[in-house]
Amino acid sequence: MENRAETLAAIVRLAEEAGALILEIYNTDFDVEKKGDGSPVTVADERAEAHIMAGLRAMTPDIPAVGEEESSQGITAEVGSARSGWSIRSTARRNSSPKGTSSPSISA
User: d(Cα 106, Cα 32) in Å, to the nearest integer?
Assistant: First the structure.
């Protein structure tokens, strides 16, 4: 990416697109599964994270990205000597999301 403003705009687009994917699933009768640690996960979580991760990796290939759902499946990023990285995780919104699920957050 050329500059921070372009990078931020692209990240906002990724988040909005992930939100649309989540809403498509939330408008159905979806299941809430349990991960190995007992925390909830849905197809919406997995699809949103996959979309965000693919976008971040294409946009900033030299910056490692780690996702909550990928990590729970044993998939990790090679951090090496990187001075920064992306962390994708779900933020619990038990009072506002259907079935006590969560929404994604992106942090750098």
Answer: 22
Q: Which tokens hold the place of 16?
A: 């909005």
Q: What pLDDT, on the 0 to 100 scale, is given for residue 7?
A: 87
Provide the 8-state DSSP code for 77: -
pLDDT digits over 56-76, tens only?
A: 989 988 888 888 776 777 766
**Phi and psi based region of residue 88 (left: phi greater than 0; alpha: psi -120 to 50; beta: remaining):** beta
Q: What phi and psi, each to the nearest 5 degrees, are found at residue 40?
A: -75, 150
Say what the pTM is: 0.73
| String of DSSP letters for 2-14 | -SHHHHHHHHHHH
* Cβ neighbour number for residue 53 with a 10 Å cutoff: 22
Does pLDDT of 35 surpass 90? no
Mean pLDDT on 90-106: 51
- Are the CB atoms for 24 and 108 separated by under 8 Å? no
